Amino acid sequence: MLLIPCPWCGERHESEFTYGGDATATIPSGDQREDTEAWYQFVYERTNPAGDHAEYWHHSYGCSKWFKITRNTLNNNILDVPESSQS
Amino acid sequence: MQQYSILNLAKHALSGHMRWSRTFGGRKLRKRYDVIIVGGGGHGLATAYYLAKNYGITNVAVLEKGWLGGGNTGRNTTMVRSDYLLPANADFKEFSLQLWEELSQKLNYNVMLSQRGYVSLACSDAEMEAKTQQANALRLRGIDCNILNIDELKKVCPELDVRQNTRYPIQGALYQARGGIARHDAVAWGYARGAHNKGIDIFENCGVEDFIINNNRVSGVKTAKGDIMADTVVVSVAGSSGLMAAKAGFTLPIETLSAQAFVSESLKPIINQVVSFDTGYAFINQSDKGELVMGGHMEPHNGYHQRGGFDRIENTLSTLVTLFPFLSRVRIMRTWGGMVDNSMDGAPILGDTPVERLLFNSGWGYTGFKATPASGWTMAHHIATGEPHDLSEPFKLSRFRDGSLVDEHGTGPYPTAY
Ligand SMILES: Cc1cc2nc3c(=O)[nH]c(=O)nc-3n(C[C@H](O)[C@H](O)[C@H](O)COP(=O)(O)OP(=O)(O)OC[C@H]3O[C@@H](n4cnc5c(N)ncnc54)[C@H](O)[C@@H]3O)c2cc1C
Ligand SMILES: [Zn+2]
After folding, report:
1. What ligand is nearest to the CA atom of residue B73?
2. Which of A8, B221, B296, B388 lies 20 to 30 angstroms, CA to CA, from B126?
3. Which fold has domain A3-80?
């Protein structure tokens, strides 16, 4: 069970959140919008590290904001919480 | 090879079972092999066995980082069945089930396959319809599968609470009588013994740290015990697939999540089937030791930690109590987790990779134990002939590029599309 630090609400129980997945996958934009390889990478490929993982969480049963944290996938330690990464 | 038989059992009883010969190991690691198999789980060991048995290829080493079957093979809930909707999945799992049915005889090793029936519950009209469609699709392919109404279900599974005033009133079930469970460790050990006896070398505590790749063609692996050369390298490391792909310089459409399971104290026989509940997702069966073996949703986030959270346990147990009210007084004995390699369409990723002669057997996620025999069989075919087997061809990595996904549940592209 994780305690997820919401930048707005503070640490809350994991069950209040929805996991949003790898935060390094970025939607192809600009020149890359027509590039199928870029879309392939965005939709399917994941570096899937054993260690630090930048990821999105959604405080679904709280303030309903999306934010980004870095969590270690080996021991679940949460390393950094950039304040209001998205709004 | 020393045969296991009632006669030999009686003979060895006289010497207190102290004189059985060892089943594998004791060989020296060589500098080169025709084939190296990375990962000594059921899949890697089955691949080794069928390479020797079906193709006579025995200059093979299986390199296992820990101990045989210590990965998901030894951590899973051992459900074996072939009731999949999509032809590619159903045909693969059905071939696997047929191999299971003769495996103990073929290996001369009791894998304790128990075809006690697989019951997949439906709790709404929509679910009943989906399961009926699935059963019809299977029967058209010649695979046994029935739909049970509540009365029939009650006969098959008398402990089930089928009253209609519960949280999830049960409407019926999809039933595969040939489904069941098998003994997880025995599968790894039986294949290991069979492969070893045919001359294949198996090494534990021998993790592969990197690949030796020249001109985009694999020529060996690096281990703590030195470099070992090979013409073909097969990677069969389940949850560690992404890490191995990164070493070889490519990225897979796979994420590794933690799935957990738990067992209760031992009870007298009470649940005589494998029962799966899709509405809330939980499943249960009873091991031959009497423990109830249970599982449910995997952890939602990526994880290599081989354990799970308490809220998942609570969620799974409260779901199972609604199905089997007697469970509320049963105590949990142990919980554990495995690292499952989930692909972006929920189906495995088998065969060729961007590196020549480097094959992957990956992406089995939460559903690969039942596939162990067929996975080894088809992978051996691919190694020996250089071409994918007809059954594994739909699961090639390139399907994600050309759009021919095998999305059993039509829910991708998420790593929870199982
Ligand atoms: C809790 C749980 C329940 C499950 N329930 C079911 C079920 O009921 N039915 C079903 O069909 N499937 C089930 N599964 C899935 C099933 O367990 C797996 O798909 C299957 O066992 C995978 O077998 P494998 O041989 O590929 O992997 P594993 O058994 O995990 O073997 C991979 C091996 O590779 C080794 N390895 C890793 N890295 C290296 C390296 N660098 N060098 C050398 N070796 C390495 C590991 O130590 C491991 O022994 C479940 C899984 C879990 C976790
Ligand atoms: Zn919040």
Report:
1. 1
2. B296
3. Folate-binding fold (3.30.2270)
